[in-house]
UniProtKB/TrEMBL annotation:
Belongs to the binding-protein-dependent transport system permease family. It comes from Paenibacillus oceani. InterPro entries: MetI-like, MetI-like_sf. Residues 74-274 form the ABC transmembrane type-1 domain. Keywords: Cell membrane, Membrane, Transmembrane, Transmembrane helix, Transport. GO terms for cellular component: plasma membrane. It is a multi-pass membrane protein. The keyword Membrane applies. This is Carbohydrate ABC transporter permease. It is found in: Cell membrane. It comes from the Bacteria.
């Protein structure tokens, strides 16, 4: 067994210490948010910093979950995320598959994709397009303008090029059409890519709030991130006030922390189911055999 030098062992301990500090810097804020959300008003007012509450209370969660606006906002966000991610994958995969095949005008289409990747239209032109197409105050304004990510499209296209062409040729010889080849052969082989880009798109839709600020003036259509911004950033917990909630609400800070946790929980639940494909998917398009 080879013995490590003292310099090597010291480097290992420095790495361990650095990684521990980085992990603590990430975990402690979540632990603080979690603890404050379950703290009572008396404990919150008494302590400056809470990492573990003395007495667990669920007043903040009862206050939020009894609110129709919050529940409706979560349902709207789930609908936007599911529908948007599905359409993102459909349009991205089909266009990427087309660009992975040689055809007349392929370079022109690829140039247009790269051009939109390097030069975006900007906020005002995009807003005018959304307005003139009648998408304002509609959930479609949060989906259609971001149907295809140029970066994901290019990487997806490189992944399709890495699939052996012999599979396509054998299927075409057997009488299958291009759509059959794509649906029955290419897509089943693309599960890591679909899982990876699906996770990217889902997180994008779930965390999106700026487009909602631009295109949604109707509070009844607000996704959860817009309502969360109103509660946390603007510090306006009165936006949750309804006749159904408690007349004596918990402290605003505990409501904010509980809202953050509830808004983050769905993505944390979905991620483990896609994790087994994620490790393969992150290397998509980087290596071609």
């Amino acid at each position: 067994m080879q013995h490590r030098t003292w310099l090597g062992r010291a480097a290992d301990w420095v790495n361990i210490l650095a990684l521990t500090l980085i992990a603590a810097a990430m975990i402690v804020p979540f632990l603080y948010i979690f603890s404050v959300s379950f703290s009572s008003m008396e404990e919150y007012l008494r302590k400056d910093f809470i990492l573990w509450p003395d007495r667990w209370v669920t007043d903040a969660y009862q206050y939020i979950l009894a609110n129709d606006k919050f529940v409706k906002s979560v349902l709207i966000t789930i609908w936007i995320t599911v529908l948007g991610t599905t359409l993102n994958l459909v349009f991205t995969s089909t266009m990427a598959y087309a660009l992975s095949k040689p055809f007349f005008g392929q370079r022109m289409f690829l140039f247009l994709v790269l051009f939109t990747f390097l030069f975006s239209a900007g906020i005002i032109p995009t807003y005018l397009v959304v307005k003139e197409t009648g998408l304002l105050n509609s959930i479609w304004s949060l989906i259609i303008p971001v149907l295809i990510s140029p970066w994901n499209l290019i990487v997806f296209s490189q992944f399709f090029k890495s699939i052996p062409e012999e599979l396509n040729e054998a299927a075409l010889i057997d009488g299958a059409g291009e759509f059959t080849v794509f649906w029955r052969i290419i897509l089943p082989l693309s599960k890591p890519a679909l899982a990876t880009f699906g996770l990217f798109y889902a997180v994008m839709h779930w965390n999106s709030y700026f487009t909602g600020i631009l295109y949604l003036s109707n509070p009844n259509l607000w996704p959860i991130q817009m309502l969360l911004r109103q509660i946390v950033v603007v510090n306006d917990t009165s936006s949750l006030m309804t006749e159904q909630v408690l007349t004596d609400p918990p402290p605003a800070e505990t409501i904010q922390m509980a809202a953050i946790l509830l808004a983050t929980l769905p993505i944390l639940i979905v991620y483990p189911f896609l994790q087994k494909h994620f490790a393969k998917g992150v290397m998509i398009g980087s290596v071609k055999g």
